[in-house]
Amino acid sequence: QVQLVESGGGLVQAGGSLRLSCTASGRAFSTYDMGWFRQAPGKEREFVATISWSGGSTRYADPVKGRFTISRDNVKKAVYLQMNRLKPEDTAVYYCAADLFARLRIGVGDYHYWGQGTQVTVSS
User: Fold this and answer.
1) Residue-wise burial string across 77-107, b where 16 or more C-beta atoms lie within 10 A, e elsewhere
2) Which run of H or E residues covers position 118?
3) 86 close to 17: Cβ distance less than 8 angstroms
4) How far is residue 48's CA from residue 67's CA, in Å, rounded to a whole number?
5) pLDDT tens, position by position, for the chain (124 residues)?
6) Strand ranges, E, within 42-117
7) How do strand 33-39 and strand 46-51 relate by DSSP bridges?
8) What region does 67 belong to: left with phi over 0, alpha with psi -120 to 50, or beta?
9) According to the model, what pLDDT value does residue 26 have?
10) pLDDT value for 121
11) CA-to-CA distance for 69 and 82, rounded, in angstroms?
12) Using CA of residue 99, residue 76, residue 96, residue 103, what is the dihedral sign?
């Protein structure tokens, strides 16, 4: 089992950057595939990015490709989301997720463990 805690959210102007962090507790973090999702008010939770257990493979949603970068540090038991050139439509609660067998899949149901979320607000 793994517990996830996100941090790094906040208010930023359009064009700015934020770096989200997700720290994990529990055993065997390095065996989990990790993902970032987001949920805007009135919308369903949607996939943002995912990274394999080794960090060797990543996958991104089309709206964030070229602007967001997912990475992980298995020694620190952390996964990160570097967000650049932010847009107002990136405003959402961002969630970290983990699963042993996600295999770069992008569905909410493909991830078993979730953090509580961190708010990102991008002003125009």
Assistant:
1) bbbbbebeebeeebbbbbbbbbbeebeeebe
2) strand 118-123
3) yes
4) 11
5) 899 999 999 999 999 999 999 999 987 899 999 999 999 999 999 999 999 999 999 999 999 999 999 999 999 999 999 999 999 999 999 999 999 988 999 999 999 999 999 999 999 9
6) 46-51, 58-60, 68-73, 78-83, 92-99, 113-114
7) antiparallel
8) alpha
9) 83
10) 98
11) 5
12) negative
The residue behind tokens 């996958």 is 59
Kindly state the tokens that stand for 93: 């609660």
Q: What is the predicted pLDDT for the residue at 1?
A: 84
Q: Which residue is listed with tokens 């959402």?
A: 92
In the 8-state DSSP scheme, what is residue 66? Answer: T
Q: Taking Cα atoms as reference points, which of 59, 32, 14, 41 lies closest to residue 115?
A: 32
Which helix (H) or strand (E) segment holds residue 105: the answer is: none
* Residue with tokens 């919308």, as numbered in its chain: 43
**Quick one: tokens of 10?**
């906040």
Q: Which residue has the tokens 């973090």?
A: 29
